[in-house]
Specification:
CATH class of chain A: Alpha Beta
Domain Thiolase N-terminal (chain B): 22-229
Largest sheet of chain A: 5 strands, antiparallel
Number of helices of chain A: 3
Number of helices of chain B: 13
Strand content of chain B: 15-25%
Oligomer: heterotrimer
Strand content of chain A: 35-45%
Helix content of chain A: 10-25%
CATH class of chain B: Alpha Beta
Order of helices and strands of chain B: EHEHEHEHHHHEEEHEHEHHHHEE
CATH superfamily of chain A: Hotdog Thioesterase
CATH superfamily of chain B: Thiolase/Chalcone synthase
Helix content of chain B: 25-40%
Distance between the termini of chain B: 22 Å
Organism (chain B): Sphaerisporangium corydalis
Domain Thiolase C-terminal (chain B): 263-380
Strand order of the largest sheet of chain A: 1-3-4-5-2
Radius of gyration of chain B: 19 Å
Largest interface: A-C, 42 and 39 residues
InterPro entries (chain B): Thiolase (IPR002155), Thiolase-like (IPR016039), Thiolase_C_2 (IPR055140), Thiolase_N (IPR020616)
CATH topology of chain B: Peroxisomal Thiolase, Chain A, domain 1
Strand order of the largest sheet of chain B: 3-2-4-7-1-8-11-10-9
Shape of chain A: elongated
Protein name (chain B): Lipid-transfer protein
Chains: A alpha+beta, B alpha/beta, C alpha+beta
Order of helices and strands of chain A: EHHHEEEE
Number of domains of chain A: 1
CATH architecture of chain A: Roll
Number of domains of chain B: 1
Chain lengths: 135, 390, 318
Amino acid sequence: MRTLTEKDIESGTTLPPLRVDLSPTLVISTALATMDFTPVHHDVERARAQGSKDIFLNILTTMGLVERYVTDWAGPEALIRGINVRLGVPAYAGDAIVFSGTVVSREGAEVTVEVRGTVSLGDHATGTVRFCLPG
Amino acid sequence: MYSLSGRTAVAGIGATEFSKASGRTELQLAAEAVFAALDDAGLSPSEVDGLVTYTQDSNQEISVAREVGIGDLSFFSRVHYGGGAACGTVMHAAMAVATGAASTVVCYRAFNERSGRRFGQPDAGLGGEPSSQGMEMSWHVPYGLMTPAAWVAMFAQRYMHTYGASSEDFGRVAVAMRRHAATNPAAWFHGRPITLEQHQASKWIVEPLHLLDCCQESDGAVALVVTSAERARDLRRSPAIVSAAAQGSGAGQMMMTSFYRDDMSGLPEMGVVGRGLWEMSGLAPKDMQAAIIYDHFTPFVLSQLEELGFCGRGEAKDFIANGGIEIDGHLPVNPHGGQLGEAYIHGMNGIAEAVRQIRGTSVNQVGTVHNVLVTAGTGVPTSGLILSQD
Amino acid sequence: MTTTAESSLHELLTALGERQIAVGEVRGVAATDPVNLPMIHHWTDAMGDANPVYTDEDFARGSVHGEIVAPPAMIQVWTMPGLARAKGAASPMDDVLGALDENGFTGVVATNCEQTHHRYLRLGETLVPATRMTGMSGPKTTALGVGYFVTWVVTWYSGDEPVAEMMFRVLKFRPREKKSEPEARAPFPLRPAVNKDTAFFWDGVREGELRIQKCGDCGELRHPPGPVCPSCRSVNRTHIVAAGTGEVYSFVVHHNPPVPGIETPFAVAVIELPEGVRIVGNVVGCPLEKVGIGMQLRVTYREMDDELVLPMWVPRES
């Protein structure tokens, strides 16, 4: 389990895509693991009553998945400095989210990656993750 | 290289009356104009083997052929892009005759544009069509930019900004056209000239265009007979030789909404037509004794004079202010009164006037006309002609 | 937003927002539990995050951290109230969000979440959150309905040391009427045709983005869009989101004849964008005589009916 170095990364480098199937189990277990007990994240009936078509991913999980997407690629010792996410369409249970990313800048050890998480309805999350390479 | 120049001629012209309510179908108007043109040429319907019209015309070639008694047709075609088709119909006819695809071709345009479907009225369906033109319109129609006046006004505003032209400069075109129409009994505005003050006081249609910057809406039909120059010499009328015919479309061209190319103060498609006409005819602007300049809206008369080389860029306002387009001017433009004064028959009535000027039979004859240039609809892919004395 | 009642409501909400911004940072209730391995483990399992610095003591000891650290994105988890929902200290957001609810802006959707992490957290640290409101803007017409954007920042302290910050923005909106209700709006009559080549643009408008087609190969920007790049023949299409500003290149004021669905007179402009393309749109929100070539604009979005959102342009200073 290697952490990337400055040699491995340059502006324009693309990250391998990551697909995460949004099973009801995933939506609910992540909501609970983030201590978010809002019914729309675990109770289908209540979610539908509010006009949603199903339970959907909570924001704390979106942030967690975006972070995971980048560190899965950059390696365990990449030091996360910032995660900026613009939220789009909901990520419903039963859908899948596909992350893609591109390095938009690397200045010394500091790297900025543009990340996009897309579901069948469109962009669920778009934004940037900043991290530093160790050493 | 094989050239179309001089091989064909317009041998007959015909028209209905120009009105606001013809009281008859568009097919009847078409048939009447075709009969009139054939009678003018001294030909019978059975001698016609080709028909050309606009894609926008509602009368099929075969319907017109049935009404008029034309038998076998060996050539029929249609030209697209609204009024930009006008001179294109003669070009297609001339090409057919010159290549032997047909011997005698009639071009026609017939509509009840005032009492029937009016082009100037907003049509909410324009943007909804799943065609490439519908897609173009979809960038404009939702914002209410959906009438020809509005599309032209967008260019006019930029033209005014670029060259310092004013609404009065456009108004002088309208005043000249109405002055010409005033002495043309066939014109709707016969006997009704206007002043620049009236132009300025007329209501806004789409700023910067006043009502009197816009051509009228008309019911009527015009037909033209095209045959070989050789044959035309044996017919009743002196031929109007087709010295040049050209179509033109520019880079980034759209239907009336070419707002996305570098410059919005010219009409590159008319530049294409102009270069084609001068090259094919071997003539130059100074060789023209008159011009029929498509005048659905006044501002594009200025741009056309510039694109065709009658004056420099931005100089048309001075050319016009100095009386340049009057009947006794440097370049008499639209002696019949144009579409602002005579009638809006989608440019076909202008071609008929050009033929009369060559024959020397116009009510507003400008003297001896050896060569006359004619243009078609602007803001769209367009066309042009140079007709000459034999 | 034209009636007197609406404008006095706007003043009231704006004043309340300004007051709460002036209050500054308000400390909240400390985390129930310190940063701990079981909660981290639970979180990494659910997220599918296998990074060993969070859970593998041996690996962590040999890493840059020298010990187990918490995932940065977990920052907010530590101070979530949990199911018991003990009523904590008041937040400066309570009054503002409450006032918006009371005035019918009952819908809520998060639009932005931006975290800054100053350092990684170690096991045993106890965090205290502090919240300050930083902004409120509106009323704005969005695809969801008319609403206000409200922004706040939470800073987490370990002792006196700020360890992380999070900017959070929500849209509080008046939910649109359901289509089945009798008040459902008549469809706007001037609809664009939309196909595979242009859907991205109209999807973007619904999400409050002005999208410009960008060739996926040569990078050329193009508007109006089309299926094939005229520069390099590529059909690999992407798009960028325009900055949303522009300048009037030309314009008209339409008076006659009447146009369905739009009250005359109205202004339409060809707008040059800083990205280098032009687009056509209405100029709204200013007297028509103020519209002129060179005028600086910014985009906004207007809901025309239950389905159609159009980009509109307003003077940039407003």
